Amino acid sequence: MTQVVLIETIGKVGLIRINRPEAMNALRHHRQ
Which pLDDT value is given to residue 7? Predict the structure, then answer.
């Protein structure tokens, strides 16, 4: 739960990129 709060406070995209770079890459690949 703490991670969720941090993501909301600091910035979803910023923290998600740091915590799950692979997930972001997968999403980018699907968009293209």
Answer: 61
